[in-house]
Amino acid sequence: MKGGIGVIELDEIREAARLLEGRVIRTPLVRSDTFSRMAGAEVHLKLESLQAGGSFKVRGAAYKLLKRREEIGPLGVVAASAGNHAQGVALAARAAAIPATIVMPVWASMGKQEATKSYGAEVILAGDSLAESISIAREMAEEGRPFIHPYDDPDIIAGQGTIGLEILEDLPDPDLIVVPVGGGGLIGGIASAIKAVRPETEIVGVQAAACPSALEALRSGERVTVEAKRSIADGISVRQVGEANFPLIRELLSGVVLVEEGEIASAVLALLERKKVLAEGAGAAPLAALLASKLAFPMGCKVVLVISGGNLDPPLMERVVRQGLLKEGRIMRFSACIEDVPGSLARLLSLVAEKGGNVLHIHHARGGEEISSFKTRVDLEVETRGRGMIEEIKVALGEAGYEVLVRE
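^ threonine ammonia-lyase, sequence as received from the core. Prediction below:
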C-alpha cells in the first residue's frame, strides 16, 4: 500500500491480473439500451455474475493462493463464509491443487453448501453466526492452515481490483462506477485501480439500508459496528468494514448511497426481465440505486454498474421476484365481499378480466364476525401490467358496487 492514503499499488493490481489471466473468467462489460433510456445516461453492466463460482470472489482468493503458494503447507487453507467467498476459495484452491476447509454457519443454504463441496472443499458446519464461524476458522488456522479473509487483506483487495482494469480496457473513459459495498474489498480494489489510471472517474458505493456500515463509518470518521437487519442483499450485510478497506473508502469514493429491500427486489426483477441476467440481491444493488434515482450524474454520462454476483438460491429467487412484482405494481392483492349465491364470483372475475387482469390465486373466506351470513369474502391475487391497471380495476369494481380492500 502507498504511504499516504493506503491505496493498493497499481503495479500490484497489474501483477494480480497477470497471475489470474486464464485462471478466472474475463467477464463482459455490456451496454444496456433499456437502462440507458431509463436513466438518461450510457449505462454499462460489468457482469461478475458470470464469473466462475457465480461472483467476483474467486479473483481475490485465487490471487492470494497463487501469490502465497510456497507459504501454504500440506493442510491447505481455511476460510469462513456463508456463500460466495466459500465458493471462491474452493474454486481457487482446486485450481492451485491446495486443500481447502470452509467453515460455514449452520444456517448456510444447502445449495451453497453443496456448491462449495462440489468444488472440492471440505465443508464444516459450525457457528450460529458468521462471526462465530470466522472465530472457529481462525482457531483452525493456528494448526498451520492460513486463514483466507473474505475482504480485509491487501492481496484479496488487489485481486478484486483486476475488475477495474478490465472495465478501463473495455471502456477507457467511464464517468461513474457504482459498486456494492459489504466489507469493502471489492470497491477498495476497483477504486484503487480506477483512480490510479483515471482519477476523474467517480466511484460510488451502494449498501442495503438494512446494514449501512460503510455509510456510518464515513459519517463518524472511523470504523463502526452497525446493527444488521435481515436483507435479500446478504452478500453485503457486513456489520463493520475492513480495517484495510476503510482508508480506501474514505479517500477514493465520492460517496455511499443506501437502497431499500423493495428497490433491490425491483432491480433483481429488472435484470432478469430486461437483460436475462440473474443477479443476487447484492449484485443488483447498483441497479437499484440507479433506478431509484439515488445517484447524481450529468445527463448522457457513462455509468458502469458492477453486478457483483448471481448466486441467488431458487427458493429465495422466487420470493425476491415476487417482492419485485409487488413493488412494481405487477401484482394486485385485494379482498372483496360478494353475495354467497351462484354467479357472484363469476361476475367479479369477469370485471377483472375485462380490464386485462389475470387471476393468479383466489381464496374464499366464509364466516367470521366481519362477514355477513349471506356473503363471502374473496381474496384475490391478480397479475397486472402496472399501477395504472390496478387503478382501472379498482375503479371498475367500485362502480359495480364492490367494496374493495387493496393489500400492499
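DSSP finds 15 helices and 13 strands in the chain.
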